[in-house]
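Q: I have 218 residues here and want to know how they pack in 3D. Can you give me a structure?
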Amino acid sequence: MKELPLRPGLMVEGNSDSRYLEALIRKQLAALVEHSDRYVEVYSCDTSPDVWTNKSAVDVLAEAKSLARDCDLLFVHCDWDAADKAHDYVAQLRQWAEREKRAGEPVALVPVLMTESWMLADKAALAAVVPGLDISRYPYSTPAEVEKRVTSSEKGKGKVKLGPKQVWGQLLGRNAHSVLQDDADILVQHTDLTVLDKVPSYRAWREATEEALRPRYL
């Protein structure tokens, strides 16, 4: 059976998101095409190392178009506070692609609250990646709760609201940066995608990705 290549591209909001999202995209795409009636080879993400989606619109669209010409899908990542911008870029890229001989299908990738939320969703994966982690300090009762700020009591401060980055710091202390950066792809390896799919923003992205794959790959 002839191989059908699937080349994803990724525009991220910041350099710190790249390693995790690149690995996650490849894992999720492989899972989606696993039962395709065609043999699909999922390649690593092509990314832009210098232009992020928090740069000027002119620069972002120029770089996105350049990536799209070499990709089958192009993921445009922004955090929740810039969700409208991500969807606007996708709309403009889709309109542009209609006039192009070859251009990857754009898909918005918007975590709530931020990429670190998705990274926190599977506590079993966290425990596997960080030996000795005190999982009793994990503040979420369900995966979907990673999309909310959690209330914590801190000495001398009373009750405070913690976002994902603060939860990471509370759980891992000095190890937080290492897991977020150096071990992000290892975290993806251990992450159960069915757990992540219980997070509404992740499920929305997975469904949009599945729809983009349908005409050619599924």
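Q: Anything worth noting?
A: The chain has a mean pLDDT of 92. The beta strands are 3-6, 8-11, 39-42, 46-47, 73-77, 105-109, 150-154, 158-162.
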